[in-house]
Structure formats: structure tokens, C-alpha cells
Write a structure and sequence with these properties.
With 289 residues, this protein is an alpha/beta fold. It contains 12 helices and 7 strands. It has a single domain, classed as 3-Layer(aba) Sandwich (Rossmann fold), CATH 3.40.50.
């Protein structure tokens, strides 16, 4: 039985409840190491396509995947923010919702020994997993330029105007207060700092039956907003040069794999429609004046 076959739990009533639901499921993923090992009772995240296969389909190279510490790639990505971030040596990079450190460990060599990459995640089990992975990263790269901090992305444990580039991968859509996340991004960025985010967004509103599935929320779907609403949030935070580029490859990959999460939700969609009609992965870039 697929992850969403019994998806009847309704949306949590408060932001804290949403955080608790998401944290519980991501803790289970951190403990087991993969999405496919998370049972129906624990819910799902961004699908169960094998982690390496998904990473290749959304743009990560085989060399990048091989260079990662063991267990850093848990198949939680919906894009490749490091590919659009144009990272340079010496920069300070912040990864929102860093999980096991997947994008942090890829960004580290790009910023080099004079740079710094900070991962923030609200799940203690993910932070513990990422910190354990640092030793393997140091052995393979010779670098000591990454760290992981426990915290919520609505209240980042990072100083004002201290970051050159903010990245994030399939996380902001999970927040119950997305405008606050974007205000925090603007706060921590240095003047002239940039954003390179991969996230989920809606092309059209989802049916109420899908919105009622907590598995859909944790699966990076029901928490997503319309593309135009997403653009407005980024601009309202005071960021400029805002560009949103739909990336259909992610949803296509999961649909083609008959992923249980997406298959379950697809059964709740109107006849004649598919996931690709409603949901897209999105590359978001912006800057701080």
C-alpha cells in the first residue's frame, strides 16, 4: 500500500502543529536514511524515487553524487540550487532546511577554504546526521568550512547582513509562514547578496481533498502556493531581480516512476488532469539591493 492510500489526516490548526508534523516525519527519514523505508504510518516526504536516480534526473552530476558523504543524499531534493547559485570562493552561503547536508557539502568546495557554508534545520535528528557527515566531508575535501545549526527557517539563527548567498531545496513550501521566511532571508543577506532556491509551487489551485492530506503537506505539495503568489512574497520581502523558472522535470520523474505519494494524490485530482497540471518545481533567484 502506498504512502497516501490512507491519507485522511487534516491540516494542522496552527503553525506549531505543522512544524511538529513535519519534524516528526523528517526525524524518521533521518533515522532510517531513505524515504522508501518510511512506512505509511510515518507519512512521506518528496516521494520514493531512489535518491541517486532522482538527483540525476533533476540535474546533479554523477561526480557530485559520488563526492557526497554516505547518507547525505536522502532523495529530498526537487531541484539543484547550487547549480543556479553561481557560488564563488570566499562567499558565506546559508542553506535553509539543510537535512543531512546534501547541498551544504556540494557548496563547500565551491566557496573554498576562505568561504563558509551554514546549514539550518529544525529537526535535531537531521542536524545530528549532518554533523556526523562532516568528518567524511573533511577527509574527502581537506576542507573545514561547513557547519550545521538547529533552528526554524522562520527565525534563522544567523546574524543580520552576514550571508552572501541563500540556497534552499524543497523546504520553504513546508513553512506555515512563508512570508516570514522570505523576510528572514532578506534580513540575513548582505547588501547585494543573492538567493538561489529550488521549491515547489502551484500552477493552479489544488482540490480540497488534496489539501486535507497531511502526507501531501509533508510531500512538498499542499504547502505550495501559486506561482504568482510566490513571486509576490519574494518581492514583498524587499528583494529585487526576482525570477521564477518552472522546472517540470521533477514532477515528470516522480509521475513516470509511479511514486506512491504522487499516485495517491493523483487519484484525488479531477478526471483528465495530472500532477503536472497543478504542481511544478520552481527555480527562484533574487537579490538584495
Amino acid at each position: 500500500m502506498g504512502c497516501c492510500d490512507n491519507a485522511t489526516t487534516t491540516h494542522a490548526a496552527s503553525g506549531q502543529d505543522v512544524h511538529d508534523q513535519v519534524r516528526k516525519r523528517y526525524a524518521r527519514i533521518a533515522e532510517t536514511g531513505t524515504l522508501s523505508s518510511v512506512s505509511t504510518s510515518q507519512g512521506c516526504c518528496c516521494g520514493t524515487l531512489p535518491a541517486e536516480e532522482l538527483a540525476r534526473k533533476i540535474g546533479y552530476s554523477a561526480d557530485e553524487i559520488r563526492a557526497l558523504p554516505e547518507g547525505a543524499n536522502m532523495g529530498l531534493s526537487c531541484g539543484n540550487p547550487t547549480a543556479i547559485a553561481n557560488l564563488r570562493p570566499g562567499q558565506v552561503v546559508l542553506d535553509l532546511g539543510s537535512g543531512g547536508g546534501f547541498d551544504v557539502f556540494l557548496a563547500g568546495p565551491k566557496v573554498g577554504p576562505q568561504g563558509r557554508v551554514i546549514g539550518v534545520d529544525m529537526t535535531p535528528e537531521m542536524i545530528g546526521k549532518a554533523r556526523r557527515n562532516i568528518a567524511g566531508y573533511r577527509r574527502s575535501t581537506g576542507l573545514d568550512n561547513v557547519e550545521f545549526r538547529l533552528g526554524e527557517i522562520e527565525h534563522l539563527p544567523v546574524a543580520d547582513a552576514s550571508v552572501d548567498v541563500v540556497i534552499s531545496n524543497c523546504v520553504i513550501n513546508l513553512s506555515p509562514d512563508k512570508p516570514q521566511v522570505w523576510r528572514e532571508i532578506a534580513r540575513v543577506l548582505k547588501p547585494g547578496g543573492r538567493v538561489a532556491v529550488s521549491d515547489m509551487a502551484l500552477l493552479r489551485p489544488l482540490p480540497p481533498e488534496v489539501l486535507s492530506m497531511i502526507e501531501a503537506l509533508v510531500g512538498c505539495i499542499a504547502g505550495a502556493v501559486l506561482v504568482d503568489e510566490y513571486r509576490a512574497m519574494v518581492r514583498a520581502a524587499g528583494l529585487v531581480q526576482v525570477e521564477l523558472r518552472p522546472k517540470p522535470e521533477y514532477v515528470a520523474a516522480l509521475s513516470g516512476f509511479n511514486d506512491p505519494l504522487y499516485s495517491g494524490i493523483a487519484r484525488s485530482l479531477p478526471t483528465g488532469t495530472s500532477m503536472a497540471d497543478f504542481v511544478t518545481s520552481l527555480d527562484v533567484t533574487a537579490a538584495k539591493e
